[in-house]
Design brief:
The structure is a homodimer. Helix content of chain A is 39%, strand content 20%. By secondary structure, chain A is of the alpha/beta class. In chain A, helix 6 packs across helix 7 and helix 7 crosses helix 8.
Chain lengths: 238, 238
């Protein structure tokens, strides 16, 4: 199979091909947090692009997670930290979710054949699933305000490695080749490597360094979140 | 000074800041070829976005370089190979020039305070010039049809190294940090490193591997090309 990487939502029109399966990645922290929600038993996640949409759901009685520029919005029940979404709070619940970059990336990719959510926490489960696909798979990085970032790019390289471990893999373009080269350099200590990245610094500034550590752990869950455009909900693939 | 890198023309709106100086880079081959033209005595280069524009200039008696998808356009005097532009052909002449990606990048960056053209061939001259700037400098990679590429990214890392050799440097975002990490891995043999890249393969397929070798040589010229938006011409900074 062929794997490619689109490093920013704004570039997706130039990477898109018919019948692609797409993996949305926002390592710090939306895609990791979505995996945690489903792992802890949330029945579905409804992603919405704007704060206004999220507030409407809140008024209608939904549990809402909302973040902008690394901080939880005041009206919301949760922010963008995976630690916010404990089993006792989310089990059996539908959660409405909007974040700075993650939900924008989902909007860009929502017309693809299959839309998965990827993180280091579910990387092996996702690789096993994708190896069953006959199509091209594209990692769509959420980035930061449409700029490229280090943590999502590194995930691309890690995912290429994970796929290679379970089957034959072709790297589709320079973007995924560069991500693979960076991952080979970073993989022995990703946390140390990412300490020079822009967003790690933002997390430190907001007192959530523990989130960064959590978001870099491999295979803490086995869930594969999949987005269904019919009802705009993310749920666990069964 | 602060250096950043914008990996695709389509992302420039998200990297742009007021008073930036911008360096257009299209290593394979437009920016290298522009440096060669001016080194060989061309008085100016008029970049145009479309084939139709270039044909009008041709009809008006100008010498024209025109390339699309790695090949010289039939009507043109030159393609995008630096070897096309010998001193005896270009000395004292204005050359009209349009290429697949390079001229698009120039269009994106044309409103910046200063717009330079960068290549491995003029990297030291350009670093010395940029160190005199008090502003932020952004490398704007031409990429390939708005996708990111390896050779322009590696130049970003090489340029960061060249600037560090002559002054204090801050890396502005993850994009230039990743480019620097890749360059440190590639610099001992960039030609070998780039043999896995997409565009190197395209050059091989078109029989111009010698161009790739030429485009990776450092400091073969001392010219700093600068674009002036008033008359849309590139000439040597004096």
């Amino acid at each position: 199979m062929t794997l490619d990487l689109c490093p920013s939502p704004a570039l997706y029109p130039f990477y898109k091909k018919e019948n692609d399966s797409v993996i949305i990645v926002d390592i710090f922290r939306a895609s990791t947090t979505i995996c945690t929600m489903l792992h802890n038993g949330a029945s579905a996640i409804i992603t919405v692009p704007t704060i206004e949409d999220a507030m409407k759901y809140k008024a209608a009685g939904y549990l809402v997670g909302a973040e902008r520029q690394t901080r939880r919005c005041d009206f919301a029940d949760f922010g963008n930290s995976p630690f916010d979404y404990s089993r006792e709070k989310v089990l059996g619940k539908e959660i409405v979710f909007t974040t700075t970059n993650g939900t924008m990336a989902i909007e860009m990719g929502r017309e693809s054949r299959m839309l998965y959510i990827g993180a280091f926490s579910n990387i092996a489960a996702l690789a096993n699933r994708c190896m069953k696909e006959s199509n091209r798979v594209v990692i769509l990085c959420a980035g930061w305000n449409n700029r490229i970032n280090m943590e999502d790019t590194l995930f691309g390289g890690a995912f290429a490695e994970a796929l290679s471990a379970v089957g034959d893999l072709t790297l589709g373009s320079d973007a995924i080749k560069m991500a693979s080269a960076l991952w080979q350099e970073a993989k022995h200590d990703p946390l140390a490597y990412l300490q020079k990245s822009d967003h790690y610094q933002r997390l430190i500034d907001n007192g959530v360094e523990s989130d960064a550590r959590y978001c870099l752990q491999h295979n803490t869950v086995t869930v594969v979140p999949v987005y269904r455009s019919a009802d705009r909900k993310i749920s666990a693939l069964v």
